[in-house]
TrEMBL record:
One of its GO terms (biological process) is cellular response to oxidative stress. GO terms for cellular component: cytosol. SUPFAM superfamilies: Metallo-dependent hydrolases. Gene3D superfamilies: Metal-dependent hydrolases. The keyword Hydrolase applies. This is Metallo-dependent hydrolase.
Length: 389
């Protein structure tokens, strides 16, 4: 019997998002306590042993170093300002055409964070930088193109660090290529030293990205429509990386790639050995009847062995699970099954990155188990090699 198991590198996780602090939809009140540690533990349970925390602002670039340090070398971070954030970061809002007087100082600060983080072994990429013309209400084209160029100039000054680029390109391929190409031609960007993540472009745009030498990152947003998956299947295995972009970009039932998923356990999510880890806990003397047990059943996710609940039901679920646990001496695991930490509906997590691998393998027409293993291993190796992790 083979001892092979999948290994995953989620190249894009937004752990600074407020959802991982229990706050949703801009609310100041939390539905649950911060749970990044539980989310990381769950991901590791299913072989996500590398994660890259993506930064969208200078503040995030600095703050992520602490989380990366607490989980090094398995977690690392990026340094950069997202195209949707450049207006606020460097212009003080979308209404200003000229950068703030301290914009150059902010760029130097970004450079210093990259230098310090790299020296400490915590920063493994420069980004997330690029262009996003789908969301011009956050930052204008002029603001995005100017600050993409200026951040690439900062990157060029850090050439000696050999950091890869973590790039964002949405509905802006021609301008993206026009800005990036001169930096490749003058050697500031080494050929192939970067990834365009969360790719949702056309086949022609994919060809342009590959022609620049970049790798391509795929997540749930990349597998949304039939056009998306028709393009995704064209990504060469040696240029492919996978991600969740958690807590965003989940694979929804409405997505074209969703029918390709299969439930746990499978090749992508091997069985997790349970144990009598809860054997020593006190038991309630009152055993529930079969009818009560059915009424108190905790619903699991359709694909993974974890409870799946609405955010507003967190405390209710917690109380229900605790009560049921006290009356369940036969329970063998607290890490999977009814008593595991719950998934929050509509919040993506790194543990789901294996689903991206499954869909991509099937889009590539892989059916033989050994071919699937080689494919999953190749994706993992691609990511480890680029980010030097």
């Amino acid at each position: 019997m083979s001892s092979w198991k999948p290994r995953y590198f989620d190249i894009g996780v937004n752990f600074s998002d407020s959802m991982f602090q229990g706050r949703y939809n801009g609310s100041a009140s939390a539905k649950h306590a911060p749970d990044v540690e539980q989310v990381i533990a769950r991901a590791r349970l299913f072989n996500v042993d590398r994660m890259l925390i993506t930064a969208s602002s200078i503040e995030e670039s600095r703050a992520h170093l602490q989380l990366a340090a607490s989980h090094a070398p398995d977690l690392a971070s990026t340094v950069g300002v997202h195209p949707c954030t450049v207006a606020q970061e460097f212009y003080g809002g979308t209404h200003n055409e000229l950068p703030l007087p301290n914009a150059s100082e902010k760029l130097r600060e970004l450079r210093d964070i990259a230098l310090d983080g790299h020296l400490r072994g915590l920063v493994k990429a420069f980004g997330e930088i690029g262009l996003d013309y789908d969301r011009l209400h956050y930052s204008s084209k002029a603001q995005q193109t100017e600050m993409f160029t200026r951040q690439l100039e900062v990157y060029a000054s850090l050439k000696h660090l050999h950091l890869p680029l973590f790039l964002h390109m949405r509905a802006a391929c021609d301008d993206f290529v026009a800005i990036v190409r001169p930096f490749i031609e003058d050697g500031s960007i080494a050929v192939g030293n970067g990834v365009v993540h969360s790719f949702t472009g056309s086949a022609a745009e994919l060809d342009q990205i590959l022609a620049l030498g970049f790798s391509v990152g795929v997540n749930g947003c990349s597998l949304k429509t039939q056009d998306n998956i028709d393009v995704a299947k064209l990504i060469p295995a040696d240029k492919l990386m996978i991600e969740t972009d958690a807590p965003w970009c989940e694979i929804r039932k409405s997505h074209a790639g969703h029918p390709l998923l299969t439930p746990y356990p499978n090749l992508y999510y091997p069985p997790v050995a349970t144990s009598a880890e809860a054997a020593a806990r006190p038991q309630s003397p009152d055993r529930p009847t079969k009818k009560q047990a059915l009424q108190n059943a905790i619903k699991l996710d359709a694909f993974l062995p974890f409870p799946s609940i609405k955010k507003e039901n967190f405390e209710k679920h917690k109380a229900q699970a605790q009560l049921k646990l006290e009356n369940s001496p036969e329970a063998t695991s607290l890490v999977i099954g009814e008593f595991a930490y719950p998934l929050i509906k509509s919040r993506n997590e790194p543990v789901f990155v294996g689903q991206v691998a499954e869909i991509m393998a099937k889009l590539h027409g892989l059916e033989d188990e050994s071919d699937v293993r080689d494919f999953v291993d190749t994706i993992y190796t691609n990511s480890c090699r680029l980010f030097k992790m």
